[in-house]
Specification:
3 helices, mainly alpha, single chain
């Protein structure tokens, strides 16, 4: 029963991650159009820096790409299975160190 709950929670978290990414993408599209309208139609910021919206959109696109990499690429390599393997390795190392310390203590007595 515990494994089913863990699988369910993992699936639920993945759905949340993907949903946030899709929301970020839609928000990026709407925001990009908004920046273009601000600059080209309403002439806001034209005196400050011509075509500033291009840099703003590229910066936002960079963060969107990082978000995409985090959801679809990094998660594959560092997902739940990776966490379990790392945890098992660390527990095994700690158990070996404890066994060595116990051996040293029993030899000294």
């Amino acid at each position: 029963m515990d494994d089913k709950y863990e699988v369910y929670e993992n699936a639920r978290n993945r759905i949340k991650q993907k949903k946030r990414l899709y929301f970020h993408f839609v928000f990026f599209l709407i925001g990009s159009v908004f920046f273009i309208v601000l600059n080209k139609v309403l002439k806001i910021g034209e005196t400050l820096f011509e075509n500033w919206f291009v840099w703003a959109i590229f910066l936002w696109l960079f963060f969107l790409i990082i978000h995409f990499i985090n959801v679809f690429i990094t998660h594959r390599f560092m997902g739940k299975k990776w966490e379990r393997k790392q945890l098992d390795k660390l527990v095994l190392k700690q158990e070996e160190k404890i066994a060595q310390l116990e051996k040293k203590v029993t030899l000294k007595m």
